[in-house]
Amino acid sequence: MTTYTYYPKGTCSKQMEVDLEDGVIKDVRVLGGCNGNLQGISSLVRGMKATDAIERMRGIRCGFKPTSCPDQLSIALEKALEKEKDAK
User: Whole-model pTM?
Assistant: First the structure.
């Protein structure tokens, strides 16, 4: 299993930790941000292929911000996939 830590930019959340195993999301933990919403997102993506989650969340905006926690999570997942690929 690969664990990747990401520090989001432009959002209320401060840190995201993603656990991947063979491209599948095993767990997501987020510090900061809207706790209930982020717990819900984490629960929804658990067990999902990272590529599918990236496709669904990429480009989501929060109000007038150019990004959002789901958008930043998609970036974290892309980086986690790269780390997992490099580890093989």
Answer: 0.94
Q: Tell me how many helices (H) and strands (E) the chain has.
A: 3, 3
Residue 65 confidence (pLDDT): 94
Please write the tens of the pLDDT for every residue from 35-52.
999 999 999 999 999 999
Long-range contacts of 47-54 (CB under 8 A, 24+ apart): 48/24, 49/23, 49/24, 49/25, 50/20, 50/23, 50/24, 50/25, 50/77, 50/78, 50/80, 50/81, 51/23, 51/81, 53/25, 53/77, 54/78
User: How far is Cα of residue 70 from the mean position of the Cα atoms in its chain?
Assistant: 7
